[in-house]
Design a protein that fits this description.
Length: 187
């Protein structure tokens, strides 16, 4: 995001909200990561056991976070146990479910899809799994045909008390999908 703004493509970047990534996998948990709050250690256990792992493999933010964690774990995934979907999170979760494999997902997608899957949430709570969201207006000097005023109105609303409360109250089965961050002390 900062490179996008620094290169002049965007203006007025604002923190908006966050959720987190979680590691889900087979209910029998062959890597024994249940309750683990260290993502790197979880991936090391999966790799040591050469247990199937499904990656989005799509160069998304989730995929980049996963690759960063594998690098920190000092493992290069091997084709024998590592599968790339090359698609979005929903398809990666479906494939992990079909293969009885582990994967990393954002909590929001997990909450939406978990009732359709036999996978279980096994590892969470590591600061490395933090997943921030920002909002940026496209620079009208570079792209004169865009609706810059509309974008700024959207940014103003999403970062307002009303917008932040809407984000905070957006829930599924009682669980917040995102935590607002634009206003420090939201009431």
């Amino acid at each position: 995001e900062m490179r996008f703004v620094d290169a002049g493509y965007g203006l007025n970047r604002r923190n908006l909200m966050y959720n987190d990534f979680v590691i889900v996998g087979p209910a029998d948990d062959p890597a024994n990561i249940h309750g683990e709050n260290n993502a790197v250690r979880s991936l090391q256990k999966i790799a040591r056991g050469k247990i199937l792992f499904v990656s989005r493999g799509d160069d998304s933010g989730t995929h980049k976070k996963e690759l960063y964690l594998w690098k920190k774990a000092k493992w290069i995934p091997e084709l024998s146990w590592y599968r790339e979907v090359g698609q979005g999170m929903g398809r990666a979760l479906q494939m992990a479910n079909e293969l009885n494999a582990y994967t990393i997902t954002d909590r929001g997608t997990w909450l939406v899809m978990r009732s359709q899957l036999s996978l279980k949430l096994l590892a969470e709570g590591d600061a490395e799994l933090y997943n921030p969201y920002s909002i940026i207006a496209v620079n009208p000097a570079r792209y004169p045909s865009i609706n810059y005023l509309g974008a700024m109105s959207l940014i103003a609303w999403l970062t307002s008390v009303e917008g932040q409360n809407r984000i905070r109250n957006y829930r599924l089965e009682g669980q917040a999908l995102f935590i607002p961050t634009a206003i420090k002390k939201l009431k």
